[in-house]
Amino acid sequence: MTSVLEEAMARRATAGLALYAPGSLEAAAHSRVRRARTMRGLGIAGVAAAVVVAGAWGAVALDGHRGAVAPAVTSPTPSPSASSGADATPGVLTAEDLTGAGGTVPDADSLPAYLCTSTLPRSCEELFVPARGLFSMAPGSTRVEVSALESSAEVTWELTYTGDEPARVATGWILPVARATDDYVGPADTLEGLSIQLPQDLRDVGAGTTVASSTVVSLGSAPSFAVGTAVIVDLLVPVAFADPDATRELWILVDGGNHPVTASDGDAAAGTVTADELRTEAFTRHREDYDLGTHAQTALDCRLDASLNPRTSTSVEDVSAPACDAVVLTTEAPLIAVTEMRFDVDDVAHTLTVRWTAQNVSGQRLNLDTGAAAVALETEYESTEPGASEFLGAGRAGTLLAQTLWETETTRHGLLRRATSVETLEPWQLFAGTGTFDVREVPDFAAALATVQVRVAGADDFAGDRELILEASWNN
């Protein structure tokens, strides 16, 4: 039995369910970094799959022209199957364990779940079970491809089980729900509209087990989203009862709401997006704009003399860090996301090497100057006033170091380099880089704000008087 479950059962036995706190169910927005000789960040792996809702709650479809792809399941530590019986199997987490410790009021360790009848039509009731920390969706890797020709969408997802002990899950029937960010879809309505019965394809999944699949679903005559729409994908995970004669089903809702993706065009290759197009709807970003959240894409719009741009002029230094207008390109879904960042310290050479990976999550083809991409560290970004940074170091190898990159309330420093290599990144394609710092200048690097900067090529990329740099933070 997991520690979370044990604690939840103890609380119910003594003091009852804890009262709901408004922020208790929100996922932490900041990644934590451990100081060690080598520090690894948990990056984005994959993510979510497909029941698409049309209309009020819409028609649920598990078929389509291309058909559903059977989930691929990988488990580094396969668990032996447990025998069936009227009681929950010792050592394996089942629906009996979760419902026995659940209730109608949420607490910090709970996730929403739905207890449904197994006979059709289903009838479901909402409850909260101590399942927080059992399942992990990797943000940024959900893929939604819309086919207007077929009135369908293909949604790709990935889910990892992170509990301490094995859990009994119907892995072949993990049910995704895709919706536009401004829509609300009731999971109970979705389940009650489902016209299938769960088969007995149960397996005991151990810690680290990853389940991945793609499903083609019908959007119906009134789809809730189209190409270019910011889409959220949630997963309904069926945890099985140990009792083979159980007449109920337990579905746990794993929420993907903090990480929307843009639905891409599945019918044909999309056109390549340039800096000129991205600027059309940009608006000013202020230093105090803390409420932008993970849905926004921020950027730096740099206006400068072309003769001072190291990319287009050989009469200046190889690198430059001009102060540029801070802008927001979109608040619906990001264009790029940092999926992994690793910090390696060499105590002998006094170096800090930052290895990062980022991904095109825009659903569109992007012209990015990956050869000029950089990683920036802001050591005192919250406490240092704009323009008050005592140092600003720009490295030829793609590094930028300062207490804060904010020069004014609406301008930030961006790195421009002579090194350049523009490539067209397909939707979901990864790109990576490395930057090396003097660790003595960043002793508390775990607390620094780490941001990847990458230039977007313009329609006329030979001009050097204006540059657009995308920013994607790792730990903010």
Task: Tell me about this structure.
With 476 residues, the protein is mainly beta. The chain folds into two domains: 3-12 and 36-265, no CATH class; 272-473, no CATH class. The chain has four helices and 32 strands. Strands 17, 18, 19, 21, 24, 25, 26, 27, 29, 31 and 32 form an eleven-stranded mixed β-sheet that branches. The chain is elongated, with a radius of gyration of 24 Å. It starts with a helix and ends with a strand.
Biggest sheet descriptor: 11 strands, mixed
Number of strands: 32
Mean pLDDT: 77
Which descriptor suits the 3D outline?
A: elongated
Tally of helical segments: 4
Give the percentage of residues in beta strands: 35-45%
Termini Cα gap = 34 Å
Number of domains: 2
Structural class given helices, strands, pairing? Answer: mainly beta
Give the uncertain stretches in residue-range form.
8-88
Gyration radius, to the nearest Å?
24 Å
Helix content range: under 10%
What's the short story on this structure?
The chain folds into two domains: 240 residues, no CATH class; 202 residues, no CATH class.
Question: Helices and strands in order, then pairings?
Answer:
Elements (H helix, E strand, L loop, with lengths): L2 H12 L23 E3 L10 E2 L19 E3 L20 H6 L10 E7 L6 E6 L5 E3 L5 E5 L4 E10 L5 E3 L5 E6 L6 H6 L10 E3 L4 E9 L11 E10 L8 E7 L6 E2 L1 E2 L6 E2 L1 H4 L4 E2 L12 E7 L15 E2 L2 E8 L5 E11 L4 E10 L4 E14 L13 E4 L3 E4 L8 E3 L2 E2 L4 E4 L4 E9 L10 E8 L9 E8 L3
